Amino acid sequence: MSQALALYGYWRSSAAYRVRIALNLKGLAYESRPVHLVRNGGEQHQPDYQALNPQELVPCLVDRGQVFTQSMAIMEYLEETHPLPPLLPADAAGRARVRALTQLLACDVHPLGNLRVLQYLGSTFQADDAMRGEWSRHWISEGFRALETMLAGNVATGRFCHGDEPTLADACLVPQHYNAVRWKLPMGDFPTIGRIVDACQALDAFRQAAPEAQADAPPPG
Amino acid sequence: MSQALALYGYWRSSAAYRVRIALNLKGLAYESRPVHLVRNGGEQHQPDYQALNPQELVPCLVDRGQVFTQSMAIMEYLEETHPLPPLLPADAAGRARVRALTQLLACDVHPLGNLRVLQYLGSTFQADDAMRGEWSRHWISEGFRALETMLAGNVATGRFCHGDEPTLADACLVPQHYNAVRWKLPMGDFPTIGRIVDACQALDAFRQAAPEAQADAPPPG
User: Which of A118, A161, A181, B163 would disulfide-bridge B158, Cβ 3.0–4.6 Å?
Assistant: First the structure.
């Protein structure tokens, strides 16, 4: 039977990974439609996909024929159309805090390490793998330093980024942490982040959203 | 008399400019607290400001003693606490569209041209002014190309980005357009964007939020 929801994504895309976590936390079944970001010059640049998302980026969610782009906008849409379990707190100040934590990651960390940016650094500044690694670690480290302070120094932080239930902030944090590990960023300075990521990874919703658990991930080894 | 709301910003910061537009559209008075991003090695790095915002970025809104960071989170907070006039549509799909337009700009365009990124390009890749200009124009152009398609090809686009009243998408678009002009990006390929920016600039709320209208802007000439 076809699902109401279909997610165009890529196993290792942080932004798609976020949306998978949110879908899983809400218990929403969806059809997975992989878009290979590297093969064939990048399937996201092919006309069929470009027609869905003129930005030629993943993810993209289709809900009964309507197309939605931008991971944060998609997650807010899921929150409004499927309110339970909530992934934002009930109070305006709490919601603002969770959104600030998500935006810190989604605006000020993730886009700087995106594939298209790393490719452009290579072509324009002749950045090799080592330089791209240094660039990526720099921006993740800048973001995590501020995030660690904001999490460790606030009584609203609980088992998760905000209280004792996962929110959109955790859905953004875990993919960014995955990316940090991939770039071999030392995590010793970020104990609160590490503790919260561990709490998330104890949940099926997070584990089943992991890049390596996706059908389009390459076989291990 | 002291205002309930105080905004820490910088005249030329796109993110602060967005929040000024939203405050003006909602008719909310606020105290302006300039943070000079260049002088004294960057006032945003001083301990007093760092205590407010560990990211050491502007803007930062204080509402009766509570501190809020991240421009998009601040604007959603203003929308929730001061719902009229609305800056998001009433329907979930429309809200998702407006949020996707804002996130296209706030995640995939603006952070790449941010001061700290340009400074890092200079120190790490010896990028001079010309190279920083090319970098900035490239990412604005990529974003505007997609945005133009999303605006021109959708019946939901009206006088403004979504319908005939300004939304959060317009509050993000005008500062990004200001930045594009500053970097001398030719705007001929983006007629819908240009038309919407003109419609915005006809409104006092946008004009009074302009960088040059701020008390901390340098005198003209």
Answer: B163
Amino acid A68 reads: F
A49 touches chain B (CB under 8 A): no
Sign of CA dihedral B101, B212, B142, B199: positive
B26 within domain boundaries: yes
Residue A82 pLDDT greater than 90, yes or no: yes
In chain A, the residue whose alpha carbon lies closest to the alpha carbon of B80 is A92
* Crossing angle for the helix pair A168-182 and A191-201, to the nearest 10 degrees: 110
Alpha-helical regions (H) of chain A: 14-25, 47-52, 71-81, 92-108, 115-125, 129-152, 168-182, 191-201, 204-207
ipTM, 2 decimals?
Answer: 0.97
Tokens 């980005």 belong to which residue? B161
Domain boundary among B85, B103, B127: B85
Q: Given an 8 Å threshold on Cβ–Cβ distance, is A72 in contact with B96?
A: no
Are B194 and B121 members of one domain? yes
CB contact residues (below 8 A), chain A span 189-208, against chain B: none
Mean pLDDT estimate for chain B: 95
d(CA B191, CA B189): 6
**Contact criterion met (CB < 8 Å) for A70 and B99:** yes
Which residues in chain A touch residue B100, judged by CB atoms under 8 angstroms apart?
68-70, 73-74
Q: How confident is the model at residue B2 (pLDDT cuts 50, 70, 90)?
A: low
Split into its structural domains, chain B has a count of: 2
> How far is Cα B102 from Cα B147, in angstroms, rounded to an integer?
10
CA distance B128 to chain A (A): 12
Judge: A107–B104 Cβ closer than 8 Å, yes or no.
no
Q: Among all residues of chain B, which has the CA nearest to that of A149?
A: B54
Its pTM surpasses 0.95? yes
